[in-house]
Amino acid sequence: MNLSCIIIDDEPNAVNLLEILIHQTTQWQLMAKCYDALEAMTFLKKNKVDFIFLDINMPQLTGMELAALLPDETKIVFTTAYSEYAAESYTFQTIDYLLKPITLKRFLSSTQKIEAHFGNKEPVVAPVSVPEKEYFFVKSGKTLSKIRLDDILYFEGEKEYVRLVTETGQLLIYRRLKEIEEQLPLPFVRVHNSYIVNTKQLEKFHDNHIYIAGKQIPVSEKFKSDFLAVIQQRIF
Asked: Which pTM value belongs to this model?
């Protein structure tokens, strides 16, 4: 996809890495490299781009302060070493939140989200094995139980087995959480080493915790950016 972007970051090494990744893996047009917020504001007043890569920890104006000054429609991919700003970042038109050091694998995942955003498609966040299925059969002991995907609240990993929780009951599955994660489509998202949640069942997200059917579930820093990338598609 032919998109235009700029990089705003005061770290030359970070700028160089992003430039290499863009040129090697996309057809995007990198229109400018800005090393501080004021330089970026001057450029953006005269030029239009599809989105910006924006660092947070910069002199004069931070990335968050700059984002607040930009037009509301400005699309942003934050690039930062600080995970604690992830939730705040989605108060803007944020497409993704990339934690430094940015790996090739994570950048490729981000390119999917970015191009999906501009192509009005659902972003690919996790491997999907059964996106067309409405249900599957769960083996618990010697019993196979039919479970509708929409009825599942969350999965909780407990050592050698996983607890599948619905509104009406629970099942123990003797598999690892990672194996189950690889078979689940959106809207199921891994939010913690011990939890996969059905975002359709999410009641609220507050202070790094999800609430589903009265259950408080922690969201770890490791999985927060991917979780927020999913729910930000429905934030008004």
From this structure: 0.55
